[in-house]
Design goal:
Elements: H1 3-17, E1 23-30, H2 38-47, H3 50-55, E2 60-65, E3 73-78, E4 83-87, H4 93-114
Parallel strand pairs: 1-2
Antiparallel strand pairs: 1-3, 3-4
Helix pairs in contact: 1-4, 2-4
């Protein structure tokens, strides 16, 4: 899959199926000078879109711009205090968005059933 096609798919998933409702906190860490950070920077751009932010204005989004050689990562804390960690060095934007949507859907449906 070409990267431009993957980015179009990621954008489509974000705009139609993703939201921040099950999320309590999202922490994005990356070094902007490394070439492996494109996917997490794209995800960061998608998460900060107005439609995503309006889906849960209580969700805290923290961005940690680093200057060391640590690999880029995405940490998500859900409302039930469970955590999910993505090490995104080898992931495409589409991979990150697809997994974010999958786990978000599971957590959101669990909240509906339990509450």
């Amino acid at each position: 899959m070409s990267s431009s096609y993957g980015n179009k798919l990621a954008r489509a998933i974000i705009s139609t199926r993703c939201n921040l409702k099950p999320c309590k906190k999202i922490k994005i860490s990356f070094n902007p000078w490394q070439s492996e950070t494109k996917s997490i920077r794209d995800f960061y751009h998608y998460v900060f879109s107005p439609s995503m932010r309006m889906s849960n204005d209580q969700c805290k989004i923290q961005v940690d711009i680093r200057s060391d050689r640590e690999e880029p990562k995405l940490e998500i804390q859900f409302k039930d205090n469970s955590k999910l960690l993505f090490k995104t060095k080898t992931l495409t934007t589409y991979d990150i968005v697809r997994e974010f949507e999958y786990y978000g859907r599971i957590k959101f449906s669990n909240n509906i059933i339990c509450c």
